[in-house]
Design brief:
The complex is a heterodimer of chains A (478) and B (416).
Chain A (H helix, E strand, L loop, with lengths): L8 E5 L20 H13 L4 E4 L7 E2 L2 E2 L10 H11 L4 E7 L5 H14 L4 E6 L4 H4 L7 E2 L4 H16 L7 E4 L4 E3 L6 E5 L4 E5 L11 E4 L4 H10 L2 E4 L4 H13 L12 E6 L1 E3 L3 H15 L2 H12 L25 E2 L10 H15 L3 H9 L4 E3 L1 H13 L5 E4 L9 H13 L12 H4 L7 H12 L9 E2 L7
Parallel strand pairs in A: 1-2, 1-18, 2-5, 5-6, 6-12, 12-13, 13-14, 14-18, 15-17
Antiparallel strand pairs in A: 3-4, 3-16, 7-19, 8-9, 10-11
Helix pairs in contact in A: 1-2, 2-3, 3-5, 5-6, 5-15, 9-11, 12-13
Chain B lengths: L12 E6 L22 H13 L4 E4 L26 H8 L7 E7 L5 H14 L5 E5 L4 H7 L15 H25 L7 E4 L4 E3 L9 E2 L4 E2 L14 E6 L2 H10 L2 E4 L4 H17 L8 E10 L3 H15 L8 E5 L1 H13 L4 E6 L4 H16 L12 H4 L8 H6 L2 H7 L1
Parallel strand pairs in B: 1-2, 1-13, 2-3, 3-4, 4-9, 9-10, 10-11, 11-12, 11-13
Antiparallel strand pairs in B: 5-6, 7-8
Helix pairs in contact in B: 1-10, 3-5, 5-6, 6-7, 7-9, 9-10
Classes of the chains: A alpha/beta (478), B alpha/beta (416).
Bound molecules: flavin mononucleotide (FMN).
Keywords (chain B): Flavoprotein, FMN, Monooxygenase, Oxidoreductase
Family (chain B): Belongs to the NtaA/SnaA/DszA monooxygenase family.
Pfam families (chain B): Bac_luciferase
Chain lengths: 478, 416
């Protein structure tokens, strides 16, 4: 072999609030009770996974002016669950999705630094940029962003947080009872940071945490999103689950690192993927088909259609052909609070593709929706899936995976029991944790405070939109 | 009006206030102190386990946005005292799976934070603890803490000027805002009815959306739409607490809280404060509800009064100044403290939040000396009698405010 085998990174995504999660299965458990989170986390840790991952959405989804009721609804608070999970795990990384639009850097930095302390260096932050006024209605500051400004705010937000994390070097606490010196530096934690979006100063009140700062994730696929990841993230959570798309994305994003003075292995690329396991490939395929039909009921298929068509199609027959009318182009008025809506960047073109596909394969609306939305990424026997995962990583379509089970909380169990041992046999996945921090699991070098501040200074000098670009809704002020 | 019922008096409630190495600034230098461990989960787990072994109702965990300071109004640059702390809600969540019965009441600042975030955080604390969550709300009008967020400004604060009309207006406004904040937090807790999650396979519906409610809060300071993203917590309404020293916060307790922490220095003052809170409570239309008034006390407990007094002097000497506090400082024996508590109970105080001057010494004196003494006197539980914090405090699980609205006559008429 010419090049050494890459080590695969694995993470568990707690099943979320879209139709991937099959709540109608009799084995489906609570989405809220802590026991479900503890089960997934313990399974992931037993299998030596890098981390558990929690997504977040700050307003319940609506469609057609009503709260969407066909999928799982509701989830607990990210930080609180992760802090509690730190009590029932020892090594597993704890990754939380936290929005940069509806938060303030000082508070989020405190929360992540606290989580990192309380977990002994296992915290990660998935910085997301959801921006809509719909979500903003839940917040006193109400601020929402023009679509093109949200990454600018995200970048400034993350920079501000980095300034806070770096405000303690790590050697300030002497706590020497004899001499009475608690702090060796009377200005420990002091910071002042002024950019267009933020003007903050004072002293940060959480001493330097074990990892220095949380591991930074980015999830977003646009040009700005990729650039943001290349400049600032330690890992990317992507949707690219096919070999072709994966390799193209991988090459594109890794290619952007050099201009920020970063090496290719300083940014890990981790697609979110689904899987179905069976005793044989045929059995797995059969299971997968059944799961897809549970994920996409006739009702769900029509709701999906409405999201692309941007119209009320409640009378449409899911077992008939696609609607004859075209999608309405423009702001999506039907579906609210859903990041995936933005995937349909050109609704007319997508509708034309769907029609052609339905025509060619003679698909009803529901079958078509299953075809375009419901395909699991990896289907087969444990052998087949282990082989495919390994190929994906060794051929640079990714550095690992964030596994999205379709069942809460037991959906990861069979993967942990059957696929992980095969990956371990192949020598591409750890059999024991080697480090104690998430950075160590991910093979990332320790955070270098000097480099952190240098990165911030460099990006702060870039031209930035003014604070006015944070539009305020109504009377929200404070 | 204080209404003593010595014979039928319900058992007293006892909480302990955890903060760093204890409330005395020199506590971290005491022989048993573990100042290097203050930022570890193990440290906090140990303290809360100790409190739970003493069957206490709950622990509170102090917090602040800014770094600790020896001045209540301004930052300092001192290096000889504990500085730095962890987010209290997360400490509580980290401890929740390790404990079983004791209530967990973190402090959270409501002046600069989002009620939507805090509401779901405390709801989730209630889930991870199986119904043991509380929330102590705290107002911050310190200009230097506002600068940490950079969103608003407050005029400079001077203790001597607190009585001036300008300062009073700022304080009154901040507490009105806090009351709005608590209202939003509470409405969000109720924004899902208990049985909103139906998982009805036949109709394909995960929830009954008629049982989810927009809260549509519009106040002078902000508005919030709702519903929460987190279902109604196990207790329905986790316990809301505020520390109160004067009229504005007394009013907040009367309007919004389940428990008020107050700082009387004798039984008479305790009686006056209880009466004032009861008046605010009545004014807010809550006369029928249970609102506990807990007295805060800083405690140094030893086998003799002389030992306790000597320890206080030694601590003061190390700190370089006599210890002062908003609350009464009690240095004496567990027996003596039990006498004091009994006296204040007669004045209408229903519980106490003890602030151990030094940890672990005074915490262990509470759990291992004071509690057995109170049990001997028949005024404190000998086993946990309830599984939730509301249960321990004798608070019923409240009806959902929105559930009542749904079955209102207006709705029925409209449907006909
Ligand atoms: C795999 C993936 C996961 C995401 N998870 C979340 C999430 O949990 N919460 C959220 O608010 N946004 C989430 N997002 C949305 C992104 O933060 C971003 O708002 C969205 O992808 C649009 O950005 P883009 O135009 O760069 O793709 C996710 C995006 C991707 C690709």
């Amino acid at each position: 072999m010419s090049k050494p085998l890459k080590q695969i990174h694995l993470a568990a995504h707690f099943p979320g609030v879209n139709n991937t999660t099959v709540w109608s299965d009799p084995a489906a458990g609570s989405q809220i009770e802590f026991s479900s989170f503890a089960h997934v986390a313990r399974t992931a840790e037993r299998a030596k996974f890098d981390f558990i991952f929690l997504a977040e959405g700050l307003r319940l989804r609506e469609q057609g002016g009503e709260i969407y009721d066909l999928d799982v609804v509701g989830r607990p608070d990210t930080f609180t669950v992760l802090a509690a999970l730190a009590a029932v795990t020892d090594r597993l990384g704890l990754a939380g999705t936290i929005n940069s639009t509806f938060n303030e850097p000082y508070e989020v930095a405190r929360q992540f630094a606290s989580l990192d302390h309380l977990s002994g260096g296992r915290a990660a932050w998935n910085v997301v940029t959801s921006w809509d006024a719909f979500t903003g209605e839940n917040f006193r500051r109400g601020g929402f962003l023009a679509q093109e400004d949200r990454y600018e705010r995200a970048r400034q937000f993350l920079d501000a947080a980095r300034v806070l994390f770096a405000s303690w070097r790590g050697d300030e606490i002497a706590a020497d009872k004899e001499s009475g010196v608690f702090l060796t530096d009377a200005d420990a934690g002091r910071f002042a940071h002024r950019v267009a979006q933020f003007d903050i100063r004072g002293r940060f009140n959480v001493p330097r945490s074990p990892q220095g700062r949380p591991v930074i994730f980015q999830a977003g696929d646009s040009e700005e999103g990729r650039e943001f990841a290349a400049s600032s993230a330690d890992a990317i959570f992507t949707r690219h689950g096919t070999l072709e798309a994966g390799r193209a994305f991988y090459a594109d994003v890794k290619g952007r690192l050099a201009k920020y003075g970063r090496a290719a292995d300083e940014l890990k690329i981790l697609p979110g993927v689904t899987y179905v396991l069976g005793g044989t490939d045929a059995e797995a395929q059969e299971k997968a088909r059944a799961i897809r039909r549970m994920q996409v009921s006739g009702q769900t298929a029509v709701k999906f259609l409405e999201q692309l068509w941007n119209r009320d199609l409640s009378d449409h027959d899911p077992d008939g052909p696609l609607p004859a009318v075209d999608p309405l182009v423009g702001e999506n008025l039907v579906a609210k609070g859903r990041a995936s809506v933005r995937m349909f960047r050109d609704p007319l073109a997508t509708a034309a593709e769907w029609r052609a596909l339905a025509e060619a394969k003679k698909l009803t609306t529901r079958e078509l929706i299953i075809e375009v939305t419901g395909r699991q990424t990896f289907i087969g026997s444990p052998e087949t899936v282990a082989h495919a995962l390994n190929e994906f990583v060794q051929t640079d379509a990714s550095d690992g995976f964030i596994l999205v089970p379709h069942l809460t909380p037991s959906g990861l169990d069979d993967f942990a029991d059957t696929v992980v041992p095969l990956l371990q046999e192949r020598g591409v996945f750890r059999t024991e944790y080697e480090g104690s921090t998430l950075r160590e699991h991910l093979g990332l070098s320790p955070v270098d405070p000097a480099r952190e501040t240098a990165a911030v200074t460099a990006s702060s000098t870039a031209t930035v939109p003014t604070a006015d670009t944070v539009t305020r809704t109504g009377r929200a002020r404070a | 009006m204080p209404q003593p019922h010595p014979a039928s008096q319900p058992a007293l409630h006892l909480a302990v206030a955890l903060d760093g190495a204890g409330w005395h600034p020199a506590a971290w230098r005491e022989p048993g102190a573990r100042p290097k461990d203050l930022f570890t989960a193990a440290y906090w787990a140990g303290l809360v386990a100790e409190a739970e072994s003493g069957l206490l109702d709950f622990v509170t965990i102090e917090d602040s946005l800014g770094l600790q300071s020896s001045s209540p109004t301004e930052p300092d640059r001192r290096t000889g005292q504990v500085r730095g702390r962890l987010d209290a809600v997360q400490i509580a969540a980290r401890i929740a799976p390790l404990t079983h019965r004791i209530g967990l009441v973190p402090t959270a600042v409501v002046t600069h934070t989002e009620p939507f975030h805090l509401s779901k955080a405390i709801a989730t604390l209630d889930y991870v603890s199986g119904g043991r969550a509380g929330l102590r709300v705290q107002v911050s009008v310190r200009p230097h803490e506002a600068e940490l967020f950079g969103r608003r400004t407050f005029p400079p604060l001077r203790l001597d000027d607190l009585g001036t009309p300008g300062a009073r207006a700022v304080i009154a406004d901040s507490f009105d805002e806090a009351a709005d904040y608590v209202e939003v937090v509470r409405r969000l807790w109720d924004s899902w009815e208990d049985d909103a999650e139906i998982r009805d396979v036949a109709t394909g519906r995960f929830i009954d959306r008629a049982k989810l409610h927009y809260i549509d809060f519009e106040g002078r300071h902000f508005r919030v739409k709702g519903p929460s993203i987190t279902p109604r917590p196990p207790q329905g309404q986790p316990v809301v607490v505020a520390l109160a020293h004067r009229t504005e916060p007394f009013r907040l307790v009367g309007r919004s809280a389940d428990v008020g922490f107050v700082t009387p220095h004798d039984a008479d003052e305790a009686g006056r404060i209880v009466a004032e809170i009861r008046a605010h409570q009545a004014e807010a239309g809550r006369a029928e509800e249970t609102v506990h008034v807990f007295a805060d006390l800083v405690v140094l407990l030893d086998d003799t009064d002389a030992t306790a007094a000597a320890r206080l002097s030694r601590l003061d000497e190390r700190a370089g100044a006599a210890f002062t506090s908003d609350a009464r400082v009690f240095a004496g024996t567990p027996d003596g403290l039990a006498d004091l508590l009994a006296g204040w109970r007669e004045a209408g105080i229903s519980g106490f939040r003890l602030r151990p001057a030094a940890i672990p010494h005074d915490l262990e004196q509470i759990t291992r000396r004071l509690v057995p003494e109170l049990q001997r006197r028949g005024v404190f539980r000998t086993a946990y009698e309830a599984g939730t914090l509301r249960g321990l405090l004798g608070l019923p699980r409240p009806a959902n405010r929105y559930a009542a609205v749904v079955s209102s006559p207006a709705e029925t008429t409209a449907a006909v």
